[in-house]
């Protein structure tokens, strides 16, 4: 099949290190099937499915199930993320080695907020991960700093009386885990960096030779706390939307390589959990189908990244961080490739109901965004074209 890419940009398939597919447990909000469709339409050829499912992905039974479902659907390589600790209590390390050795070959383990309670447990987890050669992704949210009257920071949130995650809840964990990773001889990956201080801490840690990487979400690159004025639950997310100065620091940090990559933190939620007042809403936003457009809007248009840079932050760096050997690298002639074609000049208007996800909780409803993925190719096979997806299983 010949694809005419005239006037379009050809990039390596995107790799998302942070996707919530909600399977098992909340198939009413997203499944491997629906999330894979969203990923393919968004230009992704690999996604890392987060561990906070029900049951938690703390055993090879769950991680292998997620991997198998991904392969059956065939729209995107679904890499299961394992949980660092067992269950919801998080007092005990999960059998990371068993998950890493399963058919799902788990490469990344998510703390999901458990080890932040216990620095010694985190240190042991880092030592364990180093011995296995896997990566720990830290959500960097110290819950004990969020209780009581502590507000989202900044004048807007304080005036509105919103409770949430102060910058110190993130930055204290980033600093601590950078030092623990150094002592354990491990690597650590910081999920959804959201503050100017986190950018500085990552820069400092790297200057000390610490093996640290960090991601930023599209929404933290575009949206700021002025959004909170509406009290609309659609804008609730962890970490919260912060001030314009943080947004600018994140953009600069991504441009200069301090922040390694963009990760969506695609977080589907049911209608009743988002279309409500802010304090009642669950945190999280959809991201897979809008990520590229937000990167164009916030990074390419202002001249902070060129297309080479887009390939780096959307594909090459994330693949490298997690050690994918079949993504984000130069392709030999004749080798089946993971590719995405992007029409850079088109604009489109986001409608939650037209997205492939089961849930519709996009914060970009009715916004007109630049650039669209026209074709996604996974190992030489077209998985999405002009919004249509081509799964291996016909049961969508
Ligand atoms: C995520 C979710 O919904 O699972 N929510 C969020 O606001 N980011 C959890 C997480 O990544 O912390
Ligand atoms: Zn998180
Ligand atoms: Zn998340
Ligand atoms: Zn809605």
What does this protein look like?
- The protein has 396 residues and is an alpha/beta fold.
- Helices cover 32% and strands 17% of the residues.
- The protein has helices at residues 32-41, 60-73, 96-101, 119-132, 155-160, 167-184, 196-207, 218-222, 244-255, 271-274, 291-300, 307-322; strands at residues 9-12, 14-19, 44-49, 77-80, 82-83, 108-110, 135-138, 188-190, 212-216, 261-262, 339-349, 368-378, 381-385, 388-389.
- Strand 5, helix 3 (96-101) and strand 6 form a beta-alpha-beta unit.
- It is globular, with a radius of gyration of 19 Å.
- The model has no long low-confidence stretch (mean pLDDT 93).
- The site of one zinc ion has 5 residues, from loops.
- One zinc ion (ZN) binds at residues 271, 275, 360.
Secondary structure topology:
Blueprint: E1 9-12, E2 14-19, H1 32-41, E3 44-49, H2 60-73, E4 77-80, E5 82-83, H3 96-101, E6 108-110, H4 119-132, E7 135-138, H5 155-160, H6 167-184, E8 188-190, H7 196-207, E9 212-216, H8 218-222, H9 244-255, E10 261-262, H10 271-274, H11 291-300, H12 307-322, E11 339-349, E12 368-378, E13 381-385, E14 388-389
Parallel strand pairs: 2-3, 3-4, 5-6, 6-7, 7-8, 8-9, 9-10
Antiparallel strand pairs: 1-11, 11-12, 12-13, 13-14
The structure holds N-carbamoyl-L-aspartate and zinc ion (3 copies).
């Amino acid at each position: 099949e010949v694809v005419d890419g005239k006037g379009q940009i050809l990039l390596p398939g995107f790799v998302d290190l942070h996707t919530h597919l909600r399977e098992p447990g909340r198939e009413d909000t997203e499944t491997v099937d629906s999330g894979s469709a969203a990923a393919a339409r968004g230009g992704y050829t690999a996604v890392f499915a987060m561990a906070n499912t029900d049951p938690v992905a703390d055993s090879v039974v769950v991680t292998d199930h997620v991997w198998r479902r991904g392969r059956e659907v065939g729209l995107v390589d679904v890499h299961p993320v394992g949980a660092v600790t067992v269950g919801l209590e998080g007092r005990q390390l999960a059998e990371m080695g068993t998950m890493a050795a399963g058919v799902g070959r788990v490469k990344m383990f998510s703390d999901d907020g458990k080890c932040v309670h216990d620095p010694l447990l985190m240190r042991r987890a880092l030592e364990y991960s180093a011995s296995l050669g896997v990566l720990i992704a830290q959500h960097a949210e110290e819950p004990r700093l969020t209780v009581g009257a502590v507000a989202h920071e900044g004048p807007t949130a304080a005036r509105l009386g919103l409770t949430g995650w102060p910058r110190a809840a993130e930055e204290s964990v980033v600093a601590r885990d950078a030092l623990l990773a150094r002592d354990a001889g491990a690597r650590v990956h910081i999920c959804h960096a959201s503050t100017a201080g986190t950018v500085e801490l990552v820069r400092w840690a790297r200057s000390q030779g610490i093996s640290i990487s960090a991601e930023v979400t599209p929404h933290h690159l575009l949206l700021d706390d002025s959004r909170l004025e509406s009290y609309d639950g659609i804008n609730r997310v962890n970490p919260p939307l912060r001030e314009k100065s943080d947004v600018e620091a994140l953009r600069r940090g991504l441009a200069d390589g301090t922040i390694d990559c963009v990760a969506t933190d695609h977080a589907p939620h049911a209608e009743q959990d988002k279309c409500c007042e802010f304090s009642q809403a669950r945190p999280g936003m959809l991201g897979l189908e809008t990520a590229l457009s937000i990167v164009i809007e916030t990074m390419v248009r202002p001249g902070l990244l060129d297309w080479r840079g887009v390939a780096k932050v959307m594909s090459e760096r994330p693949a490298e961080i997690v050690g994918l050997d079949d993504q984000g690298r130069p392709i030999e002639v004749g080798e089946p490739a993971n590719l995405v074609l992007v029409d850079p000049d088109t604009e489109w208007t986001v409608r939650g109901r037209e997205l492939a996800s089961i849930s519709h909780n996009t914060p970009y409803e009715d916004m007109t965004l630049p650039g669209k993925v026209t074709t996604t190719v996974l190992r030489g096979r077209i998985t999405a074209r002009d919004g249509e997806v081509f799964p291996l299983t016909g049961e969508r």
